[in-house]
Amino acid sequence: MSIFRKIILLFSASLLLMLAIGYQVDAMYTQRTEALVTQQYLDDARKLYGLLATTEPEALAAALPSMGFEAVESTQATGAEPLLERPHSFGDMRILKTRDGTYLLAIRYMETALLLRDTALDGTLQGRWLPHLLVGLDIVLLVMIFLVIIAMLAPLGHLAAKMRAFAEGDYDSRSDVPGRDEIGAVAETYNHLAQRLQDTIVAREALLRDIGHELRTPIARGMFAAEKLPDSDEKKLLRRCFSELESMTSELLEVEKLSVTGELDLQTIRAETLILQALSKMMIDDEEKVSIALDEDFDLEGDPLYLSIALKNLIDNALKYATAYPVTVTAGAGRICVRNRGKPLREPVAKALAPFRRGVHSRRQKGFGLGLSILAKVLERHALPLSHRYEEGWHCFCIDFSPAQRQKGSETG
Fold first, then answer.
1. Residues 342-360: pLDDT tens digits?
2. pLDDT per residue over 121-164, tens digit each?
3. Domain total for the chain?
4. Measured in Å, how far apart are the chain's first and last C-alpha atoms?
5. Are 385 and 375 in contact (CB under 8 A)?
6. Which of the given ranges, 22-31, 147-156, 301-310, has the highest pLDDT on average?
7. The pLDDT of residue 407
8. Least buried of 36, 130, 155, 331, by fewest C-beta within 10 Å?
9. According to the model, what pLDDT value does residue 404 have?
10. Domain holding 287: CATH number?
């Protein structure tokens, strides 16, 4: 759940709680006020009944203001809510609450009817608006806090979008979030970091181009010089070494380019086509060293160039460390597997995938220990899992192209 949704949920819960508190406070205050008004009007009714029984109507009308009563028009009682009704021997008494919150006392004594308001209650009811005001101010403050927090966090979306653009290859992506607060400091730090990374990436790309150019020239000269030598085992060895250096240089440049840009030319190809492309990149002195078994050809999605390099390195690694031939390449059930006879691994496969990592007992083998590292980088970019098992003297490395395993590899990566 995003931070904005969390804030909205917390604000909504706080607002509902505040409204509930306001409603409860209003109910309690109204109940308390009506209890005071009822008690006051009951006392007033007893006094008035005494006066009505002993005083003439004219004298009573003159005495009411001095007693704190104000006569009101009968129209003000229209639609009023009765709070209390009590019968009397010669009439009745009612306490009414009008629509505007005014409390009235209605008394009928024989032929005389009075509708009065006790002005002495004004002081008692004067502060009844204060709790409502405080609750209202609290709600307004809560809304203002919510708006301020949203305004403060709004730049985070812009900053995250710029970071995603940078991660996707837009190295000129910078944040323009103003301010001297913590979020502004984060944006400034990101801009500084992005600039440093961009400079590093540009320098790395330039270095790779220079290395590729500088290495290819002496390799080509070495291959040309080796061709002038008389045929011998040393000439074959030199030719093979230079060829491997050229192939390894090209592969490293391609894989490093993939690491920098992350761009893949995704295509749908057949497993058989991928295997043949991988074998065409290899220099196998004896074709009988590799056996192909297509149990089931299937479609797979990926970059043919990088996948063929990865599979080529996996097969080449199996050839280097095989104790017997042939090495078997199989395809079926959405997987391409490479099997070879060999000694058990002395360390986990994950360590073998690190660059320049070679086994203690494999120092005499050809290569630079980069093949499986290149394989790991390509499979990581494709979100493809590599599995290994060792049974009865056979190593079996499998690349699983099935959708379920691909999704699992993507989540793990």
1. 988 887 777 766 654 544 4
2. 766 665 566 777 888 888 888 889 888 888 888 888 888 888 88
3. 3
4. 22
5. no
6. 301-310
7. 54
8. 130
9. 58
10. 3.30.565.10
Cα separation, 403 vs 301, in Å, equals 10
Q: 249-258 as b/e, with b when 16 or more CB fall inside 10 Å?
A: bebbbbbbbb
Whole-model pTM: value is: 0.50
Q: Provide the pLDDT for residue 123.
A: 62
Give the max Cα distance, the chain.
Answer: 149
Decide if 226 is inside a domain: yes
The answer on 225 and 96 residing in a single domain is no
Cβ partners under 8 Å of residue 45, min gap 6: 86, 93, 105, 107
Range of the domain at 292: 265-412
Residues 240, 315: one domain?
A: no
Q: Is the dihedral of CA 12, 13, 14, 19 positive or negative?
A: positive
For 375-391, what is the mean pLDDT? Answer: 89
Residues 288 and 402 in one domain: yes
Residues 205 and 312 in one domain: no
Region for 332 from its dihedrals, namely left if φ exceeds 0, alpha if ψ lies in -120 to 50, beta otherwise? left
Same domain, 332 and 353: yes
Please tell me whether residues 312 and 326 are part of one structural domain. Answer: yes
Same domain assignment for residues 198 and 325: no
Measure the CA angle with vertex 62, ends 59 and 65; round to 5°.
Answer: 140
What would the mean pLDDT of 295-322 be, rounded to a whole number? 90
Q: Which candidate, 387, 388, 284, 399, places its Cα nearest to that of 330? A: 399
Residue 357 phi/psi, 5-degree rounding, is: -100, 120
Residue with tokens 């000129």: 172
For residue 98, what is the DSSP state?
-
Do 369 and 290 form a contact (C-beta atoms < 8 A)?
A: no
Q: Is residue 115 part of a domain?
A: yes
Contacts of residue 393, defined as CB under 8 A and 6 or more positions apart, other chains included, come to 341, 342
Give the DSSP letter string of 223-272.
HHHHHTSPSSHHHHHHHHHHHHHHHHHHHHHHHHHHHHH-----EEEEHH
Q: Residue 23: which residues within 8 A CB-CB, separation 6 or more?
A: none
Bridge partner list, 92: 87, 108
Please give the structure tokens belonging to residue 34.
């009506």
Of all residues in the chain, the percent with pLDDT exceeding 70 is 89
Tell me the H-state helices in 281-363: 304-320, 349-352
